[in-house]
């Protein structure tokens, strides 16, 4: 299967996917990495792995609809079977979502703490357990059907950084495992329920 991975940051989730796809039995290859900004470690990781990259900056377009169309076209050029948002900090529009299945990883147990600050919001709320969620992307913000989740404990003395790092160490494995199962076994969606397998 062909994966296009979208990133906005350090790309450790991307790196986990690149490492997993080095084994042919994983069943997928990363055919391109896209970003909404340049100069990020995620793009450098792709370049080191010899994977083509592209950047589409929202600021370079007159409006959101033009950016939506442009990024959909860049993605389509690589004919992905699945698009993976791995720390991609933009909402994808209809042109991409209608053309490809898209999965995203979020550093909280949805539907709790959606949005850009899932770790900080969970910490401020005072939950003792949070985690990570891999879901299908729909047109809302972190509202798509949940595919997989894993819990992570909050420790006394955690700050946003320590908690996020603990979540990410679990999140990378969950993303690699979930994407691998999706590409090898397929999936079906019935209402909000996602089932992996034929
Ligand atoms: C992940 O926790 C992701 O869920 C969140 O940002 C982090 C990305 O980390 N939105 P990285 O760029 O993969 O290292």
UniProtKB/TrEMBL annotation:
Q: Which branch of life, at top level?
A: Bacteria
- Signal peptide residues are none
Is Signal found in the keyword set?
Answer: no
Q: Which residues bind N(1)-(5-phospho-beta-D-ribosyl)glycinamide?
A: 11-13
Q: Which Pfam families match?
A: Formyl_trans_N
Instruction: Enumerate the GO terms in the molecular function aspect.
Output: phosphoribosylglycinamide formyltransferase activity
EC number of the protein: 2.1.2.2
Recite the UniProt keywords alphabetically: Purine biosynthesis, Transferase
Domain Formyl transferase N-terminal: residue ranges? 2-178
Q: Name one GO biological process term.
A: 'de novo' IMP biosynthetic process
Task: Give the reactions, separated by semicolons, that this protein catalyses.
Answer: N(1)-(5-phospho-beta-D-ribosyl)glycinamide + (6R)-10-formyltetrahydrofolate = N(2)-formyl-N(1)-(5-phospho-beta-D-ribosyl)glycinamide + (6S)-5,6,7,8-tetrahydrofolate + H(+)
Question: InterPro entries from the entry?
Answer: Formyl_transf_N (IPR002376), Formyl_transf_N_sf (IPR036477), GART (IPR004607), GART_AS (IPR001555)
Q: Where is the active site?
A: 106 (proton donor)
**Residues annotated for (6R)-10-formyltetrahydrofolate binding in this entry:** 64, 89-92, 104
Q: For the site Raises pKa of active site His, which positions are given?
A: 142
Keyword hit for Transferase: yes
The pathway it acts in is: Purine metabolism; IMP biosynthesis via de novo pathway; N(2)-formyl-N(1)-(5-phospho-D-ribosyl)glycinamide from N(1)-(5-phospho-D-ribosyl)glycinamide (10-formyl THF route): step 1/1
Please give an example of a GO cellular component term from this record.
cytosol
Q: What does this protein do?
A: Catalyzes the transfer of a formyl group from 10-formyltetrahydrofolate to 5-phospho-ribosyl-glycinamide (GAR), producing 5-phospho-ribosyl-N-formylglycinamide (FGAR) and tetrahydrofolate.
Describe the family membership recorded for this protein in Swiss-Prot or TrEMBL: Belongs to the GART family.
Q: What is the name of the protein in this document?
A: Phosphoribosylglycinamide formyltransferase
Q: Which organism is it from?
A: Thermostaphylospora chromogena
Ranked from the top, the taxonomy reads:
Bacteria, Bacillati, Actinomycetota, Actinomycetes, Streptosporangiales
Gene name linked to the record: purN
């Amino acid at each position: 299967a062909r994966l296009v991975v979208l990133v906005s940051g350090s790309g450790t989730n991307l790196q986990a996917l690149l490492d997993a796809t080095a084994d042919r039995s994983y069943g997928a290859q990363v055919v391109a990495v896209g970003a909404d900004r340049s100069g990020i470690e995620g793009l450098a990781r792709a370049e080191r792995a010899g994977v083509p990259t592209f950047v589409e900056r929202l600021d370079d377009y007159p409006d959101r609809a033009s950016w939506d169309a442009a990024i959909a076209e860049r993605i389509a050029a690589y004919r992905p079977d699945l698009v993976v948002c791995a720390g991609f900090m933009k909402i994808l529009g209809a042109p991409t979502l209608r053309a490809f299945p898209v999965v995203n990883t979020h550093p909280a147990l949805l539907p709790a703490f959606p949005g850009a600050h899932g770790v900080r919001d969970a910490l401020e709320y005072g939950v003792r357990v949070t985690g990570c969620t891999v879901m299908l992307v729909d047109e809302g913000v972190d509202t798509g059907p949940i595919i997989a989740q894993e819990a992570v404990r909050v420790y006394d003395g955690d700050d946003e950084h320590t908690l996020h790092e603990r979540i990410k160490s679990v999140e990378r494995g969950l993303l690699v495992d979930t994407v691998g199962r999706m590409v090898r076994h397929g999936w079906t969606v019935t209402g909000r329920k996602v089932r992996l397998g034929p």
